[in-house]
Amino acid sequence: MKRNAEAKIQAEIVEYLSGQGIFCHSVPNEGTGTDKLRTMRMITMGLRPGTADLVVWFPGRVIGYLEVKTETGQLSENQRRFKKRCEENGVFYAVVRSVEDVRQILEDQRRIEDGGEEA
């Protein structure tokens, strides 16, 4: 159930970003079930546990990651490690729980680009 709720939120976010002319794509990290061969093949091809759900090409040549969670969803240990890696390397990362969260990120970014204060 939780996975379906996150998938619905993610689909709404992708639709919103696309409508804003912002390119994004998903990362196939939702799990590979019990197919161990497929899991190993995906890891060999670059799948990394904890990688955020969406890669977003924000305006201003900023590429970042959005981790989609429900209102009560929490980051896993792998997701916390990925978040930390992003922060340590100056890569934009945010946990979002709704389209409104994404709208706020874009608004904050536009304010910074226009010379306003960082939120």
How would you describe the overall organization of this protein?
Strand 3 (62-68), helix 3 (77-88) and strand 4 (92-96) form a beta-alpha-beta unit. The chain is of the alpha+beta class. 45% of the residues lie in helices and 17% in strands. A four-stranded mixed beta sheet has the order 1-2-3-4, with helices on both faces. The longest helix is centred in the N-terminal third of the chain and has 18 residues, at 2-19. It has one domain (2-113): Trna Endonuclease, Chain: A, domain 1, CATH 3.40.1350.10. It has helices at residues 2-19, 36-44, 77-88, 99-113, and strands at 24-26, 54-58, 62-68, 92-96. It contains four helices and four strands.
Layout: helices, strands, pairs:
Layout: H1 2-19, E1 24-26, H2 36-44, E2 54-58, E3 62-68, H3 77-88, E4 92-96, H4 99-113
Parallel strand pairs: 3-4
Antiparallel strand pairs: 1-2, 2-3
How are strands sequenced across the largest beta sheet?
Answer: 1-2-3-4
Order of helices and strands: HEHEEHEH
CATH architecture label? 3-Layer(aba) Sandwich
Percent range for β-strand residues:
15-25%
Concise summary:
The protein is of the alpha+beta class. It is 45% helix and 17% strand.
Keywords:
single chain, 4 helices, 119 residues
